[in-house]
Amino acid sequence: MVPGNLAIHHRRDICSFGHSAVRGGGCDGGYFHSPMTNVRTQYREAYAPRTISKALLKALVEALVDFKPGLPTRSRKIKAKAISAGKITELEGPESWKVTDPHSSAELEHVRVELLLTAAEHRSCELHVEFRSAHITLGVSDVDTGWGKGVFEDTLVLLAALGISSKGLNERLRKAYRLLDIFQNVLLVLSVAVFAVWLSGKGISYLYAFRRCSSRVSCRR
How far apart are CA 38 and CA 19, in angstroms? Predict the structure, then answer.
């Protein structure tokens, strides 16, 4: 995938909501409300796009396989999905980074890596990283585990270590502007030097001739 509009640096959204609707077992198959409410909290960060390589995808998957080992999870599941023109592939497990192998890198449109951390039947925390042509997004969805914020913040650190961060992008832009300023200063110095050489040579005679010509016109008037 080729980077698109670099104007998108990053965006962070945090929201939470609850739901208590449970499928009823009555004859009408309706819904009833349970006093137990599951609270879902979502965290999201968006970055400017960048090309995803197999090395980057492999490093990301391998880091997520052993991500936050101290959490009391009942199960862990990691999977990846790749989409290109007319082709979709999915893989699960530690080698899911190979999901892009059947695809041409030039035609790759979308890559998604997911990690599902389950604490109990209705308590889980899921994180996903998506690579698209227009942006990269990190999303964390937490349902009653209390892990969401920690998972989100640690994933930000992980992505930054892999070179995916808004700070890294801004730093590269600052370096580019500093190089541009240096280049402009060098051009200015060269221009002054060239003008000085011109003055020390033919430039002085041209200026002297122009001054004499101006004096004669003034005298005639």
Answer: 6
User: Is 126 in contact with 113 (CB distance < 8 Å)?
Assistant: no
DSSP assignments along the chain, one per residue: -----TT--EEEEEEEEEEEEEE--STT--EEEEEEEEEEEEEEEEE---PPPHHHHHHHHHHHHTSSTTS--SEEEEEEEEEETTEEEEEESTTGGGGGTTS-TTTEEEEEEEEEEEEETTEEEEEEEEEESS-EEEEEEEESSS-HHHHHHHHHHHHHHTT--HHHHHHHHHHHHHHHHHHHHHHHHHHHHHHHHHIIIIIHHHHHHHHHHHHHHHHH-
The angle, 0 to 180 degrees and rounded to 10, between the axes of the packed helices 54-65 and 148-161 is 150
Alpha-carbon span 87 to 199, nearest angstrom: 68
Here the tokens at position 143 are 């349902």
Beta-bridge partner residues of 81: 90, 112
What pTM was computed for the model?
A: 0.62
Task: List Cβ neighbours of 126 (8 Å cut-off, separation of 6 or more).
Answer: 114, 115, 116, 117, 140, 141, 142
Distance in angstroms (rounded) separating the CA atoms of residues 125 and 115: 8
Place of tokens 């005679």: 205
Q: What is the pLDDT of residues 183-195, one digit of tens each?
A: 566 666 677 666 6
- Tell me the pLDDT tens digit for each residue of 2-32: 443 333 334 455 565 554 433 334 434 443 4
